[in-house]
Amino acid sequence: MVWDVEVKLQTRDYESHMKIKPFLTEHFFARYEFTASHLLASSDCETTSIAELLSLSGGSLADFGAVKLGYTESQGHPEYRRLVAEMYENVSADDVVILTSPVEGIYLTMQTLLEDSDEVIALSPAYDALHHVADHLCGKFALWQLVPTAAGWQMDLDRLRTLVNSKTRLIIVNFPHNPTGYQPERDELQELIEIARENDCWLFCDEIYRGLEPEFQLGAAIPSVADAYEKAIVLNGLSKTFGLPGLRAGWLVIRDGQVREELIGWKHYTTICPAAPTEYLAIQALSVRDHLAERSREMVFSNLALCSSFMERHPALFRWRPPIAGSTALVEIDMTQLGREQKQRFTSTLEYCHALAQGHGILLLPGECLGCPPRFVRIGLGREGFAEAMLAWEATLS
Predict the structure, then answer these.
(1) Chain segment 102-133, per-residue pLDDT in tens
(2) In this structure, are residues 354 and 32 in contact, taking their beta carbons and an 8 Å threshold?
(3) 66 is in which domain, residue-wise?
């Protein structure tokens, strides 16, 4: 099968450069996320309450209540940054910039690095923000597609070599990958880094699903790009693996001191500093990060088994490529088969997902929101209630 999204290098004209593309994923979620009965599209893992988190970490509501609501350090609380640095091999607390939201890190990085004359290459499909901010700012933007195989996905590193050139300023990737669940092998990651190094490119890696690899707890997962490449900027946070998206807690790792200071300068024009209550709770969460991550891994792997069984029961309808890591999977649907029993025809998964949400309260994310052809949907594997949601979905198929 050919991945049939057109890949092209686009030169931005002045008029189109003035407006950023719409954030389709967030628009879709805003319409259904808080009213749907069955959430099958969420990329985060099951969350917890403030009281439960503090009980687990040894903190207290009294200590939380004593937090002063003044300004905090722009780069982030030293203890917060120290705990983040412990998650890497070659990173110090000085290399860490605390964010007010993980997505802020995408915006700040692109504003810091990119000029109109720069060229950017981005792995696709991807979360909207990883593409649209860079596309808005740079002169030329090229999509580098993951390649679907019979049983999974793979990087086409030869294709990347044809796209990169002396004008390429930045390569954007996301591992573990949202939405496919792809994770490169160690030698593939190293080859990617060498391509960036040979061309003196910056490498931005969104690692917010890091820790949701089956081998992570065994210490056998691939290294963070922050540890492996001197011109890397790595994004992470507590939303996905640690199940705390409501904290809006995230960070960047930037080992280049000059770029780090330039980025903090841009931060002065966005959020200035992190929120004090979030910093307190994030420190508590990082003190028990292994427990939070293990809980999420168990839920993801349990739900993945249920999802695989579901797909095996409907081989004519779905092409199933099981994810290697992370909390999401990208499922291909045979649109000619979909709705045949009900004598209802859908022209795209966007149309199908709207119908599913409106008619049955079941939320899947259309692949079109992430730059996929109109026959893909994203499934989220990290939430409780997954079994009931899958049963509800299956009931609509017959």
Answers:
(1) 999 999 999 999 999 999 999 999 999 999 99
(2) no
(3) 60-288
Instruction: Report if pTM > 0.90.
Output: yes
Domain end position, chosen among 242, 261, 288 = 288
* Interatomic CA distance for residues 162 and 320, integer angstroms: 30
**Dist. CA 131–CA 371, nearest whole Å:** 9
Torsion of CA 160, 139, 260, 20, to 10 degrees: -110
Helices assigned H by DSSP within 216-287: 225-228, 257-267, 276-287
* Omega cis (within 30) before 184: no
Phi, psi (rounded to 5 degrees) for 11:
-95, 125
Q: CB-based contacts of 16: which residues, under 8 Å, 6+ apart? A: none
Same domain? 322 vs 265: no
The string of pLDDT tens digits covering residues 196-206 is 999 999 999 99
pLDDT in tens, 359-372: 999 999 999 999 99
- Do 356 and 224 lie in a common domain? no
Residues in the chain: 398
Helix (H, G, I), strand (E, B) or coil at 380: strand
User: Are 207 and 228 in a shared domain?
Assistant: yes
Quote the distance between the C-alpha of residue 67 and its chain's center: 31
Distance from C-alpha of 249 to C-alpha of 240, rounded to nearest angstrom: 11
